[in-house]
């Protein structure tokens, strides 16, 4: 339904997204995972039409996204954003009703009160009328996030793009919001791209995982495949910080700099395989191809590919 094809996004000398193929199908939740600064939020903004790629394209329902005002307006009814900080997302001077009604008013939807009532109910704020005249400061963190989600649902979208949707919430509330997203997927057939640095969140909610490093997808596949049998050294390092991991992997080198992309594999300066002497010459010298948009397991790593070739 929503797809990025060979997308490149640059800010000056920084190549924030450097050739990405990624798709979200109807009723599918895809987790986009990586460290801060890897380009995942820029990719999410590009999928929303908020950034225009230097090359490549974003398509919705098979048609390339048009950046004209009218076309973007229609597109944004179908693809809605849920931000990580509900307090910053909501105007403190607006009531809950006004916050949720903003989108329907912009798009001139009929039966505004019925739309707002339905959206609040679907977001788990019941009875909806009890919340109409409340202000954000009168709500809990979880309730504020539900208001933000209701604001997106009011436009009856087909895709949600959720940027760290539970990062600012207490642990006790996170499960409720994740359960809500799953229920919306099951009841409404919503697709979702969930941007996160938390692989535990991805395990609980996602059908597929795409792991991003320095502007590229380096591993993707079904959540169970990627998180129970990670192939890329970077994915292995991310998973090693989870409490149940038997071994902590400490990455060497500096965090990624999108203005200075290394030769060869872009991860090799920090790779634990290279640091242990288990890399190969190609790690330093040969760029890896861009991974395609597919549901099959795939990994961009010279060592893994060499092992696969040797065993086949």
Automatic annotation (TrEMBL):
It comes from the Bacteria. GO terms for molecular function: ATP binding; ATP hydrolysis activity. Transmembrane segments: none annotated. Keywords: ATP-binding, Nucleotide-binding, Transport. Residues 2-239 form the ABC transporter domain. The keyword Transferase does not apply. Belongs to the ABC transporter superfamily. This is ABC transporter ATP-binding protein. It comes from Kribbella albertanoniae.
């Amino acid at each position: 339904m929503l797809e990025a094809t060979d997308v490149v996004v640059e800010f000056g000398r920084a190549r924030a997204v450097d050739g990405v193929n990624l798709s979200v199908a109807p009723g599918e939740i895809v987790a986009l995972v990586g460290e801060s600064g890897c380009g995942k939020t820029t990719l999410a903004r590009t999928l929303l039409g908020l950034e225009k790629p230097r090359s490549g394209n974003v398509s919705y329902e098979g048609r390339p996204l048009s950046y004209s005002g009218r076309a973007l307006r229609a597109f944004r009814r179908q693809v809605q954003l849920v931000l990580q900080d509900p307090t910053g997302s909501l105007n403190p001077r607006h009531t809950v009703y006004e916050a949720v009604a903003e989108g329907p008013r912009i798009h001139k939807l009929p039966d505004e009160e019925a739309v707002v009532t339905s959206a609040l109910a679907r977001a788990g704020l019941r009875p909806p009328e009890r919340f109409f005249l409340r202000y954000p400061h009168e709500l809990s963190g979880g309730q504020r996030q539900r208001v933000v989600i209701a604001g997106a649902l009011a436009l009856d979208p087909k895709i949600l793009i959720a940027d760290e949707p539970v990062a600012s919430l207490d642990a006790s509330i996170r499960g409720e919001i994740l359960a809500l997203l799953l229920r919306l997927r099951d009841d409404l057939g919503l697709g979702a791209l969930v941007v996160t640095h938390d692989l535990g969140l991805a395990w609980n909610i996602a059908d597929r995982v795409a792991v991003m490093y320095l502007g590229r997808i380096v591993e993707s596949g079904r959540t169970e495949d990627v998180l129970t049998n990670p192939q890329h050294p970077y994915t292995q390092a991310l998973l090693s910080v989870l409490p149940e991991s038997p071994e902590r992997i400490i990455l060497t080198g500096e965090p990624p700099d999108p203005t200075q992309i290394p030769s060869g594999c872009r991860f090799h300066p920090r790779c634990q395989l290279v640091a242990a002497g288990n890399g190969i010459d190609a790690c330093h010298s040969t760029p890896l191809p861009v991974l395609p948009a597919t549901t099959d397991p795939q990994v961009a790593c010279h060592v893994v590919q060499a092992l696969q070739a040797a065993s086949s």
